[in-house]
Design brief:
single chain; 249 residues; six-stranded mixed sheet; 7 helices; 14 strands; NDM-1-like; Metallo-B-lactamas; MBL fold metallo-hydrolase; hydrolase activity; hydrolase
Length: 249
């Protein structure tokens, strides 16, 4: 097993090479689709070698390229067995737009040119993963439900090497590991941190900071500092957008 790390539009991309095929640990951005396909070809493999794309949650840098990559490669999509869609209803439409705008803001901070990040707000997975399920085609990997950032976050645990990809469970800011932004479900978020800590992984793979030894993360301090109330940009964005559209408060 080899993990290839690609520098994506605003996040790292982890393409896992097994003898049986390729596994993409997250759905990346729409802007990353060409990069992923070209890299697969550089490995001297057909695009059909990509067997599975896991979408850990629905934000643009984790789900944005999934459907397009499926169309180009024939890969299947797997996601958590969360109820309904994340971006549902009129609120979902507005949140989807605001999340793409936030992703473009992050790209600007990284001095990246503006790209088209549009992607379907509704995901159509081929596989729904329960907590503890083995990944289809790649049974060395286990899906771990780690909600809090959203209601359907997944972490992906490689059992033989004790490496765990946690997507946005934590980020590193000014040398310190902190909670991501947003955190919609604070209680679930703290439980998810405790769950990952209890696994005692050897290393932790982060969507935005690469792979670090687990001992570098003080999970107890991270749990203690975690927000106790929802911490989201969406509350203010929703209020301002509704007001602009004349929909009331």
């Amino acid at each position: 097993m080899k993990i290839h790390v690609l520098e994506g539009y605003i996040q790292h991309i982890y393409l896992v090479e097994h003898e049986t095929g390729l596994l993409l640990l997250d759905g990346c951005c729409r802007a990353d689709v060409e990069l992923v396909c070209n890299y697969i070809l550089q490995l001297q493999k057909p695009l059909s070698a990509l067997k599975l794309i896991v979408v850990t949650h629905m934000h643009p840098d984790h789900a944005g390229g999934a459907h397009k990559l499926k169309k180009l490669t024939g890969a299947k999509i797997a996601a958590a067995n969360a109820p309904s869609q994340w971006y549902r209803g009129i609120d979902g439409v507005m949140m989807h737009l605001s999340d793409m705008a936030l992703a473009l803001w992050v790209a600007g901070r990284k001095r990246k040119a503006k790209r088209n990040l549009w992607y379907p707000r509704q995901l159509s997975p081929d596989f729904f993963l329960a907590d503890g399920d083995s990944l289809p085609y790649f049974n060395e990997w286990q899906a771990i439900h780690t909600p809090g950032h959203t209601d359907r976050d997944l972490s992906l645990y490689h059992l033989p090497s004790k490496r765990i990809y946690v997507a946005d469970l934590t980020v590193k800011v000014k040398g310190q590991f902190v909670a991501p932004f947003p955190v919609f479900y604070p209680r679930l978020y703290r439980q998810s941190l405790a769950k990952v800590k209890a696994l005692q992984p050897h290393s932790v793979i982060l969507a935005h900071q690469g792979e670090v030894l687990a001992e570098e993360i003080d999970f107890n301090a991270l749990i203690a500092r975690a927000p106790k109330q929802p911490m989201t940009h969406w509350r203010s964005v929703k209020k301002k957008t509704k007001k602009a559209l004349g929909l009331g408060s």
